[in-house]
Design a protein that fits this description.
Layout (H helix, E strand, L loop, with lengths): L1 E6 L4 H12 L7 E4 L10 H13 L5 E6 L3 H7 L7 E3 L3 H9 L5 E5 L5 H13 L6 H12 L4
Parallel strand pairs: 1-2, 1-3, 3-5, 4-5
Helix pairs in contact: 2-3, 4-5
Length: 150
């Protein structure tokens, strides 16, 4: 699977660890497109959220993963891109529900609040959980319709 990843300075270290894990320990079956940042110096998170979200929206990546201090700012920025459904996740259950109920195509992780093993578990669940469809499809259509609102 092609996965676009990005981070600000607060999520930089976790992003790098997860990139290596996705390419190797996670079965080596993922292609990781690193959209930055490439260092721990202070940067503006919307720049990296936009890069990852556009890669997903344009089908250059199947899924996106963003890392910042809380995940909140990244989600807010990524959700401005048409066709992106970014979710802040903080445990395995929210990772599963974001995929199964909300058909999230981007997840945002709180780099300052979780450990690498927790991030791995959440990412694995997110990538493996299919969208549940059914009643959730009706809700996703309503979310998508909001993209057209001014």
């Amino acid at each position: 699977m092609k996965i676009a990843i990005g981070a600000d300075h607060a999520g930089f270290r976790l992003k790098n660890r997860m990139a290596v894990w996705l390419k190797t320990a996670a079965g080596g079956k993922h292609q990781v497109q690193d959209m930055g940042t490439q260092g721990p110096d202070s940067v503006d998170y919307p720049d990296f959220a936009e890069a990852v979200a556009r890669a997903v929206a344009r089908k250059k990546a199947s899924k996106g993963i963003l890392f910042c201090g809380t995940g909140i700012g990244m989600a807010m920025a990524a959700n401005k891109i048409h066709g992106v459904r970014a979710a802040v996740i903080w445990n395995e259950r929210t990772a599963q529900l974001a995929a199964a109920h909300n058909e999230a195509n981007v997840i945002c992780l709180p780099g300052r609040m979780i450990r690498a093993k927790t991030a791995q578990a959440m990412i694995r669940i997110f990538l493996q959980t299919p969208f549940g469809g059914g009643r959730h499809s009706r809700r996703i259509k309503k979310i998508s319709a909001l993209d057209k609102c001014a």
